[in-house]
Amino acid sequence: MTGEEPNKKPGPVRQFIRSTFGFRKTTLTFLVVLTYLLATLLSFYFEHKATTTPSPEPAILTNSWFDLQSISKEFHPYTSPANDRVHDYILERVQKLAKNKSYIEVSDDYDSLKTIINQQEVFDPTSIANRIIYFESSNVLVKIEGKNPSLEGILVSAHFDSVPTAYGTTDDGMGIASMLGILDHFSTKGVEQPDRTIVLNFNNDEEFGLLGAEMFFEHEWSSLVKVFINLEGTGAGGRAILFRSTDNGVLSYYKNVERPFANSLFQQGFQSGLIRSETDYKIYTRNGLRGVDIAFFKPRSLYHTKRDAITGTSKGSLWHMEKNALDMTVSFAYDTAPLNNDNSKGVYFDIFGYFFINISVDTLSVINLLIVIIVPIITLFFLLIVYKRGTWFVDVGRGWLRFPISVLLAWSITSFVAKYIYVHDPLILSNDYISPLLALSALNILLNYGILNFTSWLRPVHDQKLIGILELNVLTWLLTIWMIVQQKTTYNVAGISFTIIYLLTSLASLFGLLGLVFKSSPPKYSKQLNTRVLYGATDSIDDENGETVTSESDLVEVEEGTVDSENHPLLGGSRDGSGSGASNGTTGAQADGTNGSTVIVVDRESEASYQNRLREAALKSFSYDWSLQFLILVPISVILIYSQGELLLQAMNQTVQENKSLGQVTLHMLLGIAIWLGVPLLPFAHKLNALIVVFFIIVFFVFSSISYLEAPFSYQNPLKLRFLQTIDLSGVNEPIHTNSTFSVVPKVSLYGRAGYIESILEDIPSLKTGHTKIECVPNNATGSETCSFDSQRPWLYDGSKKENTFGSYFNIEVLSNTNNGKQSDKYSPLEAVFNLNVANSRVCTLSFNTTKYNTEDSAHDEKMLSPVKLITVYNPDAPPSSGIKPVLQIGSGDSVFIGGEDTMLAGKNVHVDFNVPTGHSTDEFGNHYFKLMKGIDSVQLHKLNFTQSNFKIGVEWLPFSFDDDDDGYGYGYQDSDDEKWLNKNKMNLGVSVKCFWGEYDNYVIVDGEKKRMVPAFDELLNYSPDYISYSNLGVGLVEIDEYVEL
User: Rounded to an integer, what distance in angstroms lies between the CA atom of residue 182 and that of residue 118?
Assistant: First the structure.
């Protein structure tokens, strides 16, 4: 007999190929498990490897680790004496290192750089207030002179101040230690002098205004540099990420770092306004420099808390920042070619900490445009060939809706479960985002599996995976088009993942179509008759068309299309001997024999039956191309989505504590990442093994149970509360150096997410015994609250109790005031001079109000202009009578004279003569002036000398408002109301002053008794649960408020 017997098994080689490479459940399951394990483990492995120190340990790491330990020894905010000790340590270290090379020079700003600047609120981009800041700098700068002074120099910068509640190890001791390591390297014997000049800026007072960076541009060395590397810390340990860059050109110098870690997803967070914190990067870019921001970024719940300490970081983390910063500095310093002038925005990322990729957003948008045009054309071309050749047995209306229906239905159910049942409170993400991520991802895969597997069983189609891949390709095509629009309109730098996944789905789909293109075409349908010779028949039946059909239960097929031997005739007589044959359908001829009858069956198959037979054969094919399609699409996509998604969640999961809107954003991110983790698998999901389905069910229930039952906060991921103790002396005649009873009770304010603070305070001992009332004021917009209560008083300096009255800590002494009701008209200027007598404080702020104006509202109202036009900060060492008098003169005349132009003002002709130029100026006595005719909304005062007992301030204001370009306007008073308008109460200027103290972890001696400086804060630290961490709410931990009406 010819041909292969129907029941003959394939050989061992064919069996191996089928079992290994065929589209089988076991093989698919193995690859799926391997893919998801790799995605989760690779990220952990490469993060661990990146923070491993080399062996033997480099000398500069040993030295910089000791520097970090020394810097982190105590809390050192700008408002504390410890800040000076850190300054002195840095100065001593750089001076010692500078002695090793003749071309290294050190400059110290301390007591030499004092100025006033006009700075917009750096942490509130919506503010339009004119804020002026008097600042005394204590930056330490080092210049490493380059061999070629014509080349543009490099600035490396970090700040050495901490917040009052943190040791500042990561923020920003790591940056300072890394800079000392860079200086250590360049001062080492045998290291060649760089071609470009390098300036190191160890700056002070970044935390409350980025002021050290501002002061850099008051230094002569600022003109030497064109690019910068800013080192920061907004977490506690881990890896330092390059998260912002001014342009693609400077990114090219990061390619040479040993352990790259960078991602433009973070930059997009800043560009979109999602991330609102700021670093010195903002000041440097505002002043025209190009550069990068490198920082530690997690965990945010330890950032600015007591646990930002040496115990919270490692040498590996320090080395990661130090080595990358050094490598990038070297890349700049020894490059004699002109700086890369590609000023376009850059899209960038690293690959497992080994490779760094960057591309301009303009180039990427062009690439995206090309592939969204070319790929569909190639795809349609392949589809046309496949259709013509008839190698894909799929109907237009069958199998094409199951993938989009499955995705949408699974997404809807997963979203519902997350929002209303499972992740009912986004705060749980603060403690654990991995458990909900895995649970929701498993749920989404299970839902898709159920839908796709059921539809595949109900109505199987040829190559369902290719249908799914093609539809996924269309989805990513649409997303890539959307990203092109974003790149063109908003310079979106976060879209590289869409491009990569679109390319992968395109390759997988084109490979599947290519296999069908080269597949042998099936034989065309033919109407020729085929005969089958059967024998052993015992009886026959009629088919549904009435044709005689022999029952085949007892038949044996001998041969199809031919007769086996001459003993088996082609046609035989019927049982009745008629010998008639069939002309269509199926006919049978039977012959009697001792062992039964012989039948010759003649078939003529219909075209529909033939096509169905081809489809059934195609469904049983082993589809050997699937493995390559899987390897092209799934592993890279899943690893990319997981690594990018985890990076986002690491940065965002604890921002849910800061604002409820950020909680919703993070929850939507989590949902999107969980769903997308399963999307690349969906074309293959209908073939999953039952065991892996059980595995995903276990994953869902285990991790959802963990996340649902665990607390939203823990010791590892605490709830952060912000502390401020306020003493309000406004309108109170608080005694100075007397034994009088204190009439003011200090209040503590705690700020944090609503619903948690009061229960914590109820267990604080002093609040239990003192029956103190706790008042909580919610902020519905942010989901936060501020809880206040009467508290123990602070003790701010050594001395007697008489010397520790609140009035002795701070009081306002008015020295002169021209607002005495004797003004000749309403255009006369008013002037007052007063002392802010403040002990052991470095920082005070002033704000103003009148009957028509207040500082707070003016920050967001461009029509509300401050009446204050001139501020004078007197030199404490100048003669008492020094100063320009009068600094502002306004008298009756024919016109208003401003900057050489005549201007009509409010219907009155007056003459204005200014002896002080606009902006900052000084006189021969060292007094500082700042004039701004648009109005000064607030003033910050910073001094270095703790023993300086006061700020002497001069304020000049007008009872009307105008700016340098406008005619001006009054405050709603008409000329006929002059007499009322001249009333003293209408011309008064209210001045609110706040002064801050930032030191708490110390003792003072009061009447021979040791007292903690801020016992109210100590008590909270000692008695709060271990899942609570504390940071500062204001510039200091203690704030004293005073108010004077001039």
Answer: 33
Q: What is the Cα–Cα distance from 310 to 190, expressed in whole angstroms? A: 32
Contacts of 743 (CB under 8 A, 6+ apart): 732, 733, 734
pLDDT exceeds 60 at position 566: no
Q: What are the φ and ψ backbone dihedral angles of 559, each rounded to 5 degrees?
A: -160, 145
Percent of the chain residues topping a pLDDT of 70: 79
Two tokens at 283?
A: 């000041």
Q: What is the CA radius of gyration of the chain?
A: 40
C-alpha 854/C-alpha 849 separation (Å) is: 4
Distance of CA 313 to the CA centre of its chain: 21
Residues 54-68, mean pLDDT to the nearest whole number: 96
pLDDT, tens only, 698-716:
999 999 999 888 899 999 9
Q: Model confidence over 836-857: pLDDT tens digits?
A: 999 889 999 999 998 888 888 8
Domain extent listing, the chain: 12-25+33-38+363-521+620-709, 59-121+138-293+303-334, 530-603, 719-802+1003-1045, 820-834+862-988
CB 167: neighbour CB atoms within 10 A? 24
Asked if residue 584 lies in contact with residue 531, where contact means CB atoms within 8 angstroms, the answer is no
Name the strand (E) or helix (H) holding 688. none
Residue 239, amino acid? R
CB 715 within 8 A of CB 305: no
Q: Are 117 and 214 in contact (CB under 8 A)?
A: yes
Query: Residue 862 — very low, low, confident or very high, per pLDDT cuts 50/70/90?
Result: confident
Residue 334 CA to residue 154 CA, distance in Å, equals 11
Q: Which phi and psi angles does 206 have, rounded to 5°?
A: -80, -35
| Contact in structure between 1017 and 1000 (CB atoms under 8 Å) | yes
**Nearest Cα to Cα of residue 164 among 127, 201, 208:** 208
**Residue pair 790/746 in contact by the 8 Å Cβ criterion:** yes
**CB-count burial class (<10 Å; 0-12, 13-18, 19+) for 131:** buried
Q: What are phi and psi of 492, to 5 degrees?
A: -60, 130
- Just list the catalytic residues: 206
HSE at residue 913, side-chain half, CA atoms within 13 A, is: 8
Q: For tokens 């995206």, what's the residue? A: 368
Q: Which residues of 519-528 are buried (b: 16+ CB within 10 A; e: fewer)?
A: beebeeeeee
Sign of the dihedral defined by the CA atoms of residues 946, 952, 958, 962, in that order: negative
Q: Three-state DSSP class for 16?
A: helix
Amino acid at 987: M
Pair 1040, 845: CB distance under 8 Å: no
Characterise 77 by phi-psi region: left (phi > 0), alpha (psi -120 to 50), beta (else): beta
**Spatial distance between the Cα atoms of 911 and 891, rounded to a whole number of angstroms:** 5
Q: Is the dihedral of CA 763, 764, 769, 773 positive or negative?
A: negative
CA angle 418, 420, 426 (to 5 degrees): 60
pLDDT band with cut points at 50, 70 and 90 for residue 906: very low
Using alpha carbons only, what angle is made at residue 610 by residues 604 and 611, rounded to the nearest 5 degrees? Answer: 160
From residue 5, alpha-carbon distances to 613, 949, 1028 in Å are 19, 108, 77
Domain 59-121+138-293+303-334 homologous superfamily, CATH: Zn peptidases (3.40.630.10)
